């Protein structure tokens, strides 16, 4: 449940409130949201956004159609979003992709990060929704095999924002890990060390 303060801050950051926000797990030093967690399903109207081809859908408790929502962790901090967008324009995605392609150990780490994301997403679902999904082959395939941001090829870097949000969320969940965060997140910070300085001021925790 978002506080009124968080709701207002998210409106300022994003221009709207994303559907199905569960919590703020990373904050700036000023307590503004940096990363939010979203429910893995969202309400959908038949037709334009019916979910066909994206894992189908299940019926919610109120009779509404629920379809997969690909973004479990959402980066809301404008400074980070702008910095990552600049990096994408400079070709950093291709640079990171080349590093992964040339290193089998990195490939293994990236694939494992996707698998961890899949498990984290599944655990966010209610037991009732898990049971319904298990009866829907298309939904089950989508939610149990597609990784960060709905990516099917685990070794393809799709978007720096998606990967960095997962990186920060992983730092929140596993602060004492000897290899902190995610493989792609570490490569992003290596490409721009300023990001490491920025995140050192963040507050990690579900609050």
Protein described:
With 207 residues, this protein is an alpha+beta fold. The protein has helices at residues 4-14, 78-89, 92-101, 104-124, 127-134, 137-145, 160-173, 183-191, 194-199; strands at residues 21-27, 33-38, 41-44, 58-59, 65-68, 73-75, 203-204. The chain has one domain (4-204). The chain is built from 9 helices and 7 strands; from the N terminus they run H-E-E-E-E-E-E-H-H-H-H-H-H-H-H-E. The strands form 2 sheets. The chain has a 4-stranded antiparallel sheet, sandwiched between helices. A 3-stranded antiparallel sheet has the order 3-5-4. Strand 1 (21-27) and strand 2 form a beta hairpin. The N and C termini lie close together (10 Å). Mean pLDDT is 90; it is low at 46-53. InterPro entries: DUF501.
Oligomer: single chain
Tell me, briefly, the overall form: globular
Amount of beta strand: 5-15%
How far apart, in Å, are the first and last alpha carbons? 10 Å
Helix content: 40-55%
Q: Provide the succession of SSEs.
A: HEEEEEEHHHHHHHHE
In terms of structural class, how would the helical and strand content be classed?
alpha+beta
**Count of β-strands:** 7
What is the tally of helical segments? 9
The biggest sheet amounts to:
4 strands, antiparallel
What would you report as the Rg, rounded to the nearest angstrom?
Answer: 17 Å
* Overall tally of domains: 1
Strand order of the largest sheet: 6-2-1-7
Pfam families: DUF501
InterPro entries: DUF501
Protein name: DUF501 domain-containing protein
